[in-house]
Design goal:
It is a single chain. The protein is mainly alpha-helical. The protein has 7 helices and 2 strands; from the N terminus they run H-H-H-E-E-H-H-H-H. The chain has a two-stranded antiparallel sheet. Helix 3 runs parallel beside helix 5. A hairpin with a 2-residue loop joins strand 1 and strand 2.
Length: 223
């Protein structure tokens, strides 16, 4: 785990601190720059975490934030979203072909058929967005707003697929135990319905991703 932070301040207004000073005989001055190998070190209080973090610094000094954001850019590639989305849409399509409702097979319902086709198209969009990020990584480039595009679209697509599956399956989708023989599609969509909610929050919320796309991708002003 990497932690970024510190006390470096860059602000339009000046900051200042206060200190208490006094006079002391020079022979009694205790300096902090005269230590020699073999000296004993007496700790009057626990070492601050800043000492430990400085000893294990990643990247250049005062550039920790850039290290953290670069790691996030790589984390947001989003290949998993398109892969799982495609599998889920294929499972729903097969289920709709095999399952009968009050008016015949579910797949013969125009609304459901259109919804499945639309999700299949969105899965392909998600795949292409994630492939763009992977290609940039393979070229030694750092994806920035491109990764945010993939993450925002892919994670929200996961929610749309799960929500559609819940509606199409009906009340049976609430049976989420994979070992329940009566659970349609082994309860996968009930679990996905809950799992995809934090998916739009982890690694940066969708709002954060849209801000990155707007400012760094489209060049829009902040605020």
């Amino acid at each position: 785990m990497a932690l970024a932070g510190g006390h470096s301040i860059d602000a339009p207004e000046p900051f200042f601190g206060l200190a208490v000073t006094g006079e002391v005989q020079e022979s009694l001055v205790k300096r902090n720059n005269t230590a020699q190998p073999g000296d004993l070190l007496f700790l009057t209080k626990p070492l601050g975490t800043g000492t430990l973090f400085a000893a294990d610094m990643m990247g250049e000094e005062n550039r920790g934030w850039y290290v953290a954001t670069t790691l996030l850019d790589f984390e947001r590639s989003g290949v998993n979203w398109s892969a799982s989305g495609r599998r889920q849409v294929e499972d729903l399509t097969a289920y709709a072909k095999q399952t009968h409702g009050p008016k015949g097979r579910l797949i013969d319902n125009p609304d459901l058929r259109y919804g499945l086709a639309n999700l299949r198209c969105e899965v392909e969009v998600s795949r292409l967005l994630s492939y763009q990020v992977v290609w940039m990584q393979s070229q030694g480039k750092v994806p920035n707003y491109e990764a945010s595009m993939s993450k925002a679209f892919g994670s929200e697509l996961g929610q749309r697929v799960a929500n559609f599956g819940m509606r199409m399956i009906g009340l049976g989708s609430q049976r989420i135990d994979a070992n329940d023989p009566a659970a349609p599609l082994r309860g996968a969509f009930g679990r996905a319905y809950m799992r995809t909610v934090p998916g739009t929050i982890a690694a940066g919320t969708s709002e954060v991703q849209r801000n990155i796309i707007a400012t760094r991708g489209l060049g829009l002003p902040r605020g």
